[in-house]
Amino acid sequence: MGLPNPIPDNPLKWDGWKRFDSANPYERLCLDTSGQPPTNAQIEEHCRLLLMWWQKKLPLKSQPSNPMAQMLRAGLDEASAKLSEARALLLDPERREALDAQLLSQAREGALAEFHKFLAFALTGGTLNPSQEERLLITGEKLGLTREEAQGLVDAEIARTGAKRLADTPPVATPPPAPTPPPAPAPSSTKATNPQEEFLRMLRLSGVDEMTDDQRDAFCNMGEALGLTGGQAEDVIDDYLDERMLGGAAAAPPKAASARIAKPAPKPVTPKAPPPRRPPVITNSPILRAKEREQYPPYTTLQGMPMLLVTSGSFRMGSDKPGAMPNEQPVTPTGISAFYLSRWPITNALYEQFDPAHRALRAPGAGDHHPVVFVSAHDAARFCEWLSHHERRQYRLPTEAEWEYAARGTDDRVYPWGDTLDRGVYANFADVNTRLPWADPSIDDGFAESNPIGSFPRGVSPFGMEEMAGNVWEWCLDGLITYPGREQTNPRGPLDGARRVVRGGSWKSRPGNLRVSARAFQPPGTTAHDIGFRILCVPGA
Predict the structure, then answer these.
(1) I need a labelling partner for 278 at 20 to 30 A (CA). Which of 142, 366, 406, 419 fits?
(2) Any residues with CB less than 8 A from the CB of 195 and at least 6 apart, and which?
(3) pLDDT value for 242
């Protein structure tokens, strides 16, 4: 939804004006509710801009034959009162709380009604097999219901209608093939048929039952060396650990050949296969967002950094818009689970609680509240480890996908604040104060180099993060990879390698580098006067 800034004067280029009489006050004011709840300042600003837009159209009231006047019609008489009414309601805490409860109840009723449609269709024949039931449960989760709620509705409807649950049809038995001589053993150097099999074979040879974070990273690097992505290596490791825990093939080391000859092998017991790993269901449902906000309220670290929740959701990662670079394509549908992200980049004062010696490396003129720079990706990771130890929470750098989702939300915007960059009030980038050949002399953002955090509140992202564009580049957790183009969930690039992703642009950047989809990279050991970082916390960990 959102509100373009500036608002196009021609109503044919922007249909937001049609919302002036919406039953939902948020929609009347074109407020985006997919991320953090709108602040009072955002409510006031949207109302002011919309009132100004309608004020300019009032002369059309004296031109009834004008096609634009006919199109705007009722809005010329009613928009001002409707917008002011929405503003007053949303600025009243009690009335807004009641409205939010009402909207959530309506969303839940809609989700239940939609789920019952799918359920009635699935039970049309009076039977339900496990595959159909699993698809129903996933549909319920996508609508914002919990798996338990969806299961309860299925059980109740089966009891009401007398439908029968069926077992999945077993495979048709086929006679065993005629015995054939066993093939000659392959040389030990022969690899498995694919990298996943080879990596799993190597994990089984290790005999490890539990892994520290360092061991896991080392194994991930091994998997990446075999040609897997970081996420694929993580999945194989999880499968292996499940296998060990459930007593699978790797649970016992192989016996010596002599022992097998001297003593007959016991009758083999087929271990129970580990349950399949079900990927999380990612949805943009307002019901799920409300549940996550209730479960994971914002908090502040002991060092004083506000941490804001980024609710689960899906978005289009990358860009095919004009100005997009080849490494931003193909655009890839991406689902992300909820996480916390720091409101601002880590500052000098916060970082120097971990490393007091860094004070000597501060950029000239940078104070306590300027973002820390001259830190490598390894330095940033060590800071996260230190903070995790002190706060008993799990901190790390955001992945590239998590960073982009937090910056752009779900509406495919160009910058964290929207689609335009026409004034120096949204971000700090190469402007008239910056002595660089590509600086824009028509923009004055007030800073020659980096700025103290909190200097650009109007550049806020949908989830409440500030300065995700400009000021300093920010390290990400993973290395640069090519987007797959197919749907992905919680992707993660290689954790090691020569090209570590940085995002967001800096005070030295051209406007194009401030786009939420713009990608850059540096060797992870790089330190520079325009690269810093912000931190992610895993909820409930």
Answers:
(1) 406
(2) 223, 226, 227, 228, 232
(3) 67
